[in-house]
Each structure stands twice: as C-alpha cells, then as structure tokens.
C-alpha cells in the first residue's frame, strides 16, 4: 500500500501544470515600491509588468525565475510600467543569480509559486 501512495503522489506531481510566463528580465535599484515597502539592491524582489502586477493584487507573492540554466525566487514589491508583456524588473542580487549585470536584459521564464 505504501508504494501505491508514492506512485500516486509522483503521478500527481508530474501532471500538475504551472503557468509559466516568458519575458525579458531587466534590473533596477529598488527603493520605495508600489506595494508600500522599501527594499535595496540585495533584496530578493521583483517589479512586474502592468498586466501581471494586476493593480497590486499580486503584491507580496513570490515568483520563481528560470534562465540560463539557473533558477531563483523573488517577492513582488513593485510595478514596472515600462516592462512589456511578461517582462519583469528585478533587484541586482536577483539578476546576478541568472546572468551578469553587464547583460542588462535576458529572456527568462517565470511563474507564481
């Protein structure tokens, strides 16, 4: 019976879907964000494009970001009005987890946790 439970759990994990978004990731120097908090360059934070920011409905949520064979996580704290569809703007500490700051802009996949 125990092995059957493991198999069911494994199948459920494999069949669950996560709605990943593809877009450009850029970086910025955080300060007072649209969600009301203050952060800095070392904070694990992200600003979302207007559509995904959803008038602040996603403030405080965490996203997983994947790119260049790497993965990191960031908390939604701000709006990025200049970001295109799927685009995100992250603190330097988060950008550096995926690519060199010198790159400035990279394409990533991301999803809400």
Automatic annotation (TrEMBL):
Keyword Signal: yes
InterPro entries listed in its UniProt record: Expansin_CellWall, RlpA-like_sf
PROSITE patterns per the UniProt record, alphabetical: PROKAR_LIPOPROTEIN
Recorded superkingdom: Eukaryota
Signal peptide bounds: 1-20
SUPFAM superfamilies: Barwin-like endoglucanases (SSF50685)
Official protein name in the record: Uncharacterized protein
Species, as recorded: Xylaria grammica
